[in-house]
Amino acid sequence: QVQLVQSGAEVREPGASVRLSCKTSGYRFISYYIHWVRQAPRQGLEWVGIINPSGAGTTYAQKFQGRVTMSRDTSTRTVYMELRSLRSEDTAVYYCARAEYFSDTHLDYWGQGTLVSVSS
Amino acid sequence: QSVLTQPPSVSAAPGQKVTISCSGDSDNIGNNYVAWYQQVPGTSPKLLIYDNNQRPSGIPDRFSGSKSGTSATLGITGLQTGDEADYYCGTWDTSLSAQVFGTGTKVTVL
User: Fold this and answer.
1) Which of A107, B18, B54, B91 is deepest in the core (most CB within 10 A)?
2) pLDDT tens digits, B21-71
3) Which of A47, A61, A113 sits opposite B44 (nearest CB)?
4) Distance (Å) of CA B60 to CA A44, B49, B54, B63
C-alpha cells in the first residue's frame, strides 16, 4: 500500500533551519511528484512547493523562494524539505503529499505531518 | 491569503444535505480540475473528490462534486456525525504556477 512517512517533530529558534523528510513506499517513486503543504495552528492549507523525484526539478511558492530547498534521494525513496531563516510564523504542521502530475492534479496520498515549532 | 473562497461553516441535522461552495477565477478553477479534501481535526487531509466530480475508491457516493465556470461545489447527503470535519477545495493556478487551496469550511452535524 502507498505510504508517506514523515520525520518527527522539530523545535527551532528563530533564524535557524530545519530539514524534514518524507519516506515513500508502495509505488514507483519516480512516477509521482511530491508536494509540501503546511498548516499553521487553526489555519488553512498553504502550498509550499513541489519536487519531481525523477529529475529533481522543483517549483516553490513565491512566498518561500530563497528560503526553501526540496531534494530527493532515489536510493531511499525519500524526499526532503529544508526551510531556512525560520521565524515564528513558520510554526506549522508540514505535510508531504503525492500527485501524479505537475499541474492540474490532485494530492491523493498524504503523510502524517511534521510539527515544526519556532520559538525563542 | 487563499485564492479560493469558501464559506467558513455549514451545518445540518443528521441525514440532511449540505453543500459547500468554492469560488475562484479563470486562472484556477475556470481552467483546471478541482479536488476536495476532508480533514478531521488532528489528522492529515484526505482526498474526497478529484477531477471535479470523481470519487477515489472507498469514498461513499454520499459525497459528490461539480464545477461550473469559476466555481465548484461539494455536496454531502445523508449527513453523519463522522462527517464533522474541515473541507478544502484545491486546484492548480496557472498564473501563480502554484497549487492553491480554499479557505476551508467547517461542517457541523447538529
Assistant:
1) B91
2) 999 999 999 999 999 999 999 999 999 999 999 999 999 999 999 999 999
3) A113
4) 25, 11, 11, 6
